[in-house]
């Protein structure tokens, strides 16, 4: 079992802190309440039922005890990924600080004029 792997399992127990899942490969895992869905979960029993079959993702695996930490939230977030808008950059123009250098004399003149008015 590897972290990030997606497995099928059945809910075998529900506690206030999470739900126990029997995976198809015979391993037992826990979905912590924070990993059930994005946002606040008031009552786990509103989200999951004993005997319910789920597709879960492994977020951690203890090889010594053979127990897995599982998540439904990571699968939910995968579905909702929104393409990020591309931000404008001038990197491809390779102009560096040239635009700033071109405006610097104007900004200095403007600042001097402002300060002279403040002194009067």
TrEMBL record:
Domain called S1 motif: residue spans: 4-73
GO molecular function: mRNA binding; structural constituent of ribosome
Transmembrane residue ranges: none
GO biological process: translation
Source species, domain of life: Bacteria
Pfam families to which the protein is assigned, alphabetical: S1
NCBIfam families: PRK07252.1, S1_dom_CvfD
PANTHER family: 30S RIBOSOMAL PROTEIN S1 (PTHR10724)
Full protein name: S1 RNA-binding domain-containing protein
